[in-house]
Amino acid sequence: MSNLPNCPKCNSEYTYENGTLLVCPECGHEWTKSEAALEATARVWKDANGNELHDGDTVTIIKDLKVKGASSPIKGGTKVKNIRLIEGDHDIDCKIEGFGAMELKSEFVKKA
């Protein structure tokens, strides 16, 4: 069994080396070993002001956010308690009163 990292794009375990590159046969993504080492380090999430976010923090939404399928937007100034940080484009998983469970981008919140 090889000790190569999974593909950072599709998380496939079938990666292989091609010269100095690591390649994923499933999605075709190519990356270098130095990029793989950087991705292995812990990610730091930051709010709109550059403050570091952690699981369980309370944040405040800084601007009105439109929600698909909802009749009204989430108003700026809404407090969101007990956030959970996740990987991806929308990197905050939370529950907002009146809207339910949703994911937010960290660039639209500030630490409360």
What labels describe this entry?
about 110 residues; mainly beta; N-terminal domain of TfIIb; SH3 type barrels; 2 domains; three-stranded antiparallel sheet; 1 helix; 11 strands; elongated
Question: How would you characterize the overall build of this protein?
Answer:
A hairpin with a 6-residue loop joins β8 (84-85) and β9. The protein has one helix at 33-40; strands at residues 16-18, 21-23, 30-32, 45-46, 52-53, 59-61, 79-80, 84-85, 92-96, 100-104, 109-111. It has two domains: 1-42, Single Sheet (N-terminal domain of TfIIb), CATH 2.20.25.10; 58-111, SH3 type barrels, CATH 2.30.30.40. The mean pLDDT is 88. It contains one helix and eleven strands. The protein is elongated, with a radius of gyration of 18 Å. The protein is mostly beta strands and 112 residues long. The strands form four sheets. A three-stranded antiparallel β-sheet has the order 1-2-3. The longest helix has 8 residues, at 33-40.
State the helix count.
Answer: 1
Euclidean distance between termini CA atoms? 47 Å
CATH architecture of the largest domain: Roll
- Might you state the CATH topology name of the largest domain? SH3 type barrels
Helical/strand content category: mainly beta
Morphology: elongated
The share of residues in helices is: under 10%
**H and E string:** EEEHEEEEEEEE
Strand content: 25-35%
Largest sheet: 3 strands, antiparallel
> How do the strands line up in the largest sheet?
1-2-3
Low-pLDDT stretches are none
Task: Report the strand count.
Answer: 11
Question: Rg from C-alpha positions?
Answer: 18 Å
